[in-house]
Design brief:
This protein is mostly helical. The chain has helices at 13-23, 27-40, 44-50, 56-68. The N and C termini lie far apart (27 Å).
């Protein structure tokens, strides 16, 4: 778990829509990822990957999307 003084920003609506629409991740998996991301103060894609909610290849796709958007 990462502990920092500053809290991480919540994921954007665009990112959430991309994860659901383009990667086919369920709403429930996304909600769990967001909840854990907030509790752990960690980036959503990393948390989703570490909990097995997305694959490594899906993580790479999300990171590329984040880089380009």
């Amino acid at each position: 778990m990462i502990n920092t003084i500053n809290s991480i920003n919540p994921p954007s609506t665009e990112l959430c829509n991309f994860i659901i629409d383009n990667l086919g991740i369920s709403q429930g998996a996304l909600e769990l990822g967001i909840k854990r991301s907030c509790l752990e103060n960690s980036p959503l894609p990393i948390v989703m990957w570490s909990y097995g909610l997305i694959t490594l290849s899906q993580l790479k796709i999300i990171l590329l999307w984040l880089k380009n958007n």
